[in-house]
Design a protein that fits this description.
The complex is a heterodimer of chains A (275) and B (276).
Chain A: E1 6-16, E2 22-33, E3 38-42, H1 49-57, E4 64-69, E5 72-73, H2 80-87, E6 90-93, H3 97-100, H4 107-118, H5 123-136, H6 153-166, E7 171-175, H7 183-200, E8 203-208, H8 211-217, E9 220-225, E10 228-234, H9 235-240, H10 245-253, H11 263-274
Helix pairs in contact in A: 4-5, 4-6, 5-6, 10-11
Chain B: E1 2-12, E2 17-28, E3 33-38, H1 44-51, E4 59-67, E5 70-71, H2 77-87, E6 88-91, H3 105-117, H4 121-134, H5 140-144, H6 153-166, E7 171-175, H7 183-200, E8 203-208, H8 211-217, E9 220-225, E10 228-233, H9 235-240, H10 245-252
Parallel strand pairs in B: 3-8, 3-9, 6-7, 7-8
Antiparallel strand pairs in B: 1-2, 1-4, 4-5, 9-10
Helix pairs in contact in B: 3-4, 3-6, 4-6, 6-7
The chains are: A alpha/beta (275), B alpha/beta (276).
Chain lengths: 275, 276
Amino acid sequence: MSTPAIVVDGLTKTFSGHGRHKVTALDNISVTVERGSCLAVVGESGSGKTTLARIIVGLETADSGTVTLNGKPVAGRASRSELHRRAREIQMVFQDPQSSLNRRLRVSTAVDEVLRAHTRLDARARRDRCVELFEQVGLEPRQLDSLPGELSGGQRQRVAIARALAADPSVIVLDESVAALDVTVQGQILKLLAELRAAKNLSYVFITHDLSVVQLVADQIVVMHRGAIVERGATAEVLGNPRHAYTQLLLACAPRPGWKPQRGLIRAFREKIAS
Amino acid sequence: MLEIRDLCMTIATERADLDILRNVSLAVAAGESVGLVGESGSGKSMTLRSILRIEPSNATVSGSITFAGTEVLSLDGEALRRMRSTDVSMIAQNPHAVLNPVLPVVNYLIEGMHDAQGMPKGAARLRAGELLEQVGIDGVDRVLGSYPHQLSGGMLQRVVIAGAIAGKPKLMLADEPTTALDVTTQAEVMAILDEFRRDLGMAMLYVTHDLDLAAAVCDRISVMKDGQIVETGVPEQLRDNPQHPYTRQLMDSRPAGIIPSVTAPSETDVNEGEPK
């Protein structure tokens, strides 16, 4: 078996909240992402899922525990050169491309910056590569010189994906990357992500609160609640036969055809979780 | 009770006039719940805002909106105020934009009952407490005295719902009321909203991008795209036999999938985290 893309072992992170109050964002978290697979990290706000994503890509430092990326340990405070090296292996796509793209820069410049930082291509070769990347994510070459504001939400997210691909990473962390998109656009972006994963043998960490998206993209799931993993397994197994009360609560609350919100049921699961 | 006919809206910008709504027609009967489903820019929120006449100031509106037989588009200030304060209430997406950040939430609830219905302040305060209990808030006194920033989004949206039902309006307008909430909070808030609507016999016009959410609480659904209603029907009919290609596209982007229906917690359920 090949080396896993990511091995997270015993990750713990606390933030100091108001006054002496401390918030445990991650409590001894361990997960493995096999090469070429997609792991969904599912949870609500405050579950720690975004903190986990940020530590994996190196935007945040853990209090303890290790992250191993393609067999190399990466956790702990990283130097600039170490972060630069890591960026060639792992990239992140955020929820809102409106805020992750500079609205004053042409979208080609956003992609070009990454190429300049991580490749030795000259200006002309970089431009060619930009065109290639845009084609891969389903954008027209004429859109290269658009400003983010001139593109739709879905197109902007395609730019963000093109930018992530520019560093030629083996892993992409997607933090609620389709949450802000209209459902029909969501479907297109999910399809694009699946095609890219297959074509480039990419590994994904897919952070989301949306179970109906999870079942379309993920091979494996971990369910997080208040900084801890409460359930994990293959997607079909966890969604089809949930064992933890919190997973069941999430399933009971996921809108889908024929679904009704039931106050009593939600209360019953909340009590079970608290007991 | 509410009837919108051939509603058109144009917004004049520096570059061009934008047609936001194009001949939108829909009706909501007394006690009926109607969903208005569409993606961003489809005009669903603008339709809703036209009913309370809170469309953008550079918008031109034509057509007809009648509420209980009265033409809303020609109401004067005083009559409009009366309609907004007693007959029609609205729940917006972001409760922070509704609640005054420098006043405790009790003021928001009392203001409506005292100003609009002339209820004495003491009685209004008692009633505010009752309402919060009904929308499932524990520790009512603490919550009443809290400022908006001290409460979670789900809690605030319940406060707004309590305010919206306080005057027992005939029509409730809801504009993506749960979009900013976590999934479990969303389900709870929708359940509460649906329960009160039925108990009080209120009509509702519910704007959302989520067809499954609308189907869960609506008798009929209109699907909007590019400022027009492309199809109207009961939820099952839209799901099983969509007539318009766009409705079908919306359906297909949310397949039923493998999520099972969940009935009740069982003895074998776990409620601990993973062993360390």
